[in-house]
Amino acid sequence: MRKLLAIVPLAFFLAAFPFIASAQEQETWDVRALNRIIPGAPIGKIDFDMASSTAHGTNGVFVKYGDAVLTADSVSLNSQTGEAVADGNVRIEQGDQIWVGEHITYNFKTHRMRSEQFRTGKAPVFTQGEQLQGDTSNKVYNARHVFVTTDDVSEPAVRIHASHVKIVPGQYFEAWNAVLFLDGVPAFYFPYYKRNLNARANNLNFLAGYRSAYGPFLLNTYSWFLGDEADGKLHLDYRERRGVGAGPDVNLHFGQWGDATFSYYYLHDHNPNESISMNSFSNLLGKIPENRQRFYFAYQATPFTNLNVKALLNYQNDPLVLHDFFESEYSQNPQPNSFVEVNKYWENWSLDAETTPRINDFFDQVERVPDVKLTGFRQQIFDTPVYYESESSAGYYRKLFADTNNPALPDYAAARADTFHQLLLPWTFFNWLNLTPHVGGRFTYYSRESGPGGTNDETYRTVFNTGLGASFKASQLWTGATNSLLEIDGLRHIIEPSANYVFVPHPSTPPSQLPQFDSQLPSIELLPVQFPDYNNIDSIDSQNVIRFGLRNTLQTKRDGQLDNLLDWNVMLDWNLTPNARTNAIFLQPQKTFDDLYSDLAFKPRSWITLESQTRYNINSGDLNFAFEQLEFTPNTRWSWGLGYWYLRGGFLGSGDNLITSTMFYRLNDNWGFRATHDFNAQEGRLQQQFYTLYRDMRSWTGALTFRVIDESNGRPRDFTVAFSFSLKANPRSHLGDDTVQPYRLVGE
């Protein structure tokens, strides 16, 4: 019996040797019985014939060679030729393509395939037919009596029947004598039909609805593709109260020479002052024309290594055309700029040239015609421990104010040349304490100001700066720490204290006597205190400050991956010599201590995230700014995000106190619901409401959205009801787009 037990495995190995020997030469054959667990079903088995290098399996067979996998009820295989004849529940997978049939002949080496009946699919297109012949290596297949659909169900509602079809999976299919069926009813005949199967397939999407500012509307977008070199969209929109709007988008792809985008839109507006009556734009009354248009051009290229070219042109003939008809763009940037920029990078240097002409007279802008800057990255000076960094720029600048300002502000212009150089000496003591003393200087030349607002003569300014940066990092690891509630599997604590001292004596010329082209603007976050990070060149004033920082990080393992449980950064500025400046640039004098700034990210579980940013005035006890966001994403069925935005009045404007909520719930595979609310806690008003009902209609997707905007101040509410409809194979919006840009559900 022991000899028999030893002989059986050896005999099996010898029988399978032709397959193993062949694998040594090329690929590895993996042939085995599936042994499906079906009550009453016979056990799968495979018979090998060493002489003919063949194998025959029944009752469930698995064959793998290279990246091709075949499963079937029975398979006859020749390992020398690579040909397999499979019957019963045949399934072939190669890459991301799947083929299914009852009888398929497939060659693992030549990748040729024959089948009397077949089904195949690669989302979003699925095919079924007869007499399939093809080659999976060059991925070209021919078949007869075929139907093609984007509906991934056994009985598709929308499909094309054809007598002969040529299929190139993932690229295109060609059909002859094709008939379009809608829910079983023939709707259209095509003698010849060709359709792209990739994302670059022509498609039509529309959005229909009603809005208080529009009346009934219908927005149509036709997306077209011309090879890999060009694509675009054609817009044709109708708004009953506003008129017809239309325009093209064109994208050109030049390979090494970059990509360009052109976009134009025109609308003859029947009610151009509609938005003024519904919003707080009373200063624009009578200034919005009937002929409304915008033109957009963008270009970006990297023609050579480390050489980047960018250009952006935003023209609109009135300040509200984006607000009225392109809400998504307006919400991201209500005053878009135009510029041309060229950047060249080397290992330690970069050269930048930029020009920013003002295209729209109704926006404030600083024109740079041009601005050239040479940057020296931090670099070691030969073999010394000293490091060097610099920034030098020169240009001609014009400060232009919007012609819609009331009262009007006078423009001014001047030339400026600025150069900054700094030396640093980083040291590490005791293998943990990092000290970096630095010393630098800046020289700036300003020409005499011109223009009606010019008041300053030609002047020079020198600035000296010095300081010391100190920091260290310490960590502690607890490998045995576990907690099921917080999903903790081991714990590491990292602490990073820092202190940066910066001393800048009074510049030779104060900021109030300089033209303000790069001036300090109000900011929610703390501005840098060190040069060159602080780049408001024209606002530089004296300072004697220490910035304290403390960062704490807690890390653990979740699903075998490193994850941050807590990341908390706290900063505070101690002004050793507070600057009593009060002018048009610095509206309030410095206090001994500036705001305490906190930036927190807390993830108690893998599906719960809390993010928080706050600024607390420790002198007056006021909370100047708070932004809190809590997200729950436990599964794919539902998610909920809560947000709080607070800005104290007088800190950076009139103030805000806003509570937001966004909840999504997937009712089943076909239905979903999203609700978004913005509540103005300062006025006790529900400022904006979004409700969207999603429907998956197999080949199509639809979204019904209801929105209410309440701007208060006696203005009427703005109601919108919209229905978007698009082919699932080429959706109007992709997964998550409606969360980031919800305005696309009700318009552009």
DSSP helix fraction: under 10%
Q: Averaged pLDDT, please?
A: 85
The poorly predicted ranges are 1-25, 582-586
Form type: globular
Radius of gyration, in angstroms, nearest whole number? 34 Å
Number of helices: 5
Quick one: biggest sheet? 26 strands, antiparallel, barrel
Strand content: over 45%
- Which oligomeric form is depicted? single chain
Secondary structure tally: strands: 42
Distance from first to last alpha carbon: 80 Å
Structural class: mainly beta
Q: What does this molecule look like?
A:
The protein is mainly beta. 6% of the residues lie in helices and 58% in strands. The strands form 2 sheets. It has a 26-stranded antiparallel beta barrel. It is globular, with a radius of gyration of 34 Å. It starts with a helix and ends in an 8-residue tail after the last helix.
Task: Please summarize what this structure is.
This protein has 748 residues and is mostly beta strands. Helices cover 6% and strands 58% of the residues.
Layout of strands and helices, then pairs:
Layout lengths: L1 H24 L3 E5 L11 E5 L4 E5 L2 E5 L2 E5 L1 E5 L4 E12 L2 E11 L4 E11 L2 E11 L4 E10 L8 E11 L3 E11 L2 E12 L6 E9 L3 E12 L3 E10 L3 E11 L5 E10 L5 H5 L12 E14 L2 E10 L4 H5 L1 H6 L6 E7 L3 E7 L9 E16 L6 E14 L11 E13 L2 E3 L3 E14 L12 E13 L2 E10 L4 E17 L38 E16 L2 E15 L20 E10 L2 E10 L4 E11 L5 E10 L8 E11 L4 E10 L4 E13 L2 E10 L8 E10 L9 H4 L8
Antiparallel strand pairs: 1-4, 2-3, 3-6, 4-5, 5-7, 6-7, 7-8, 8-9, 9-10, 10-11, 11-12, 12-13, 13-14, 15-16, 15-42, 16-17, 17-18, 18-19, 19-20, 20-21, 21-22, 22-23, 23-24, 24-25, 25-26, 26-28, 27-28, 28-29, 29-31, 30-31, 31-32, 32-33, 33-34, 34-35, 35-36, 36-37, 37-38, 38-39, 39-40, 40-41, ...
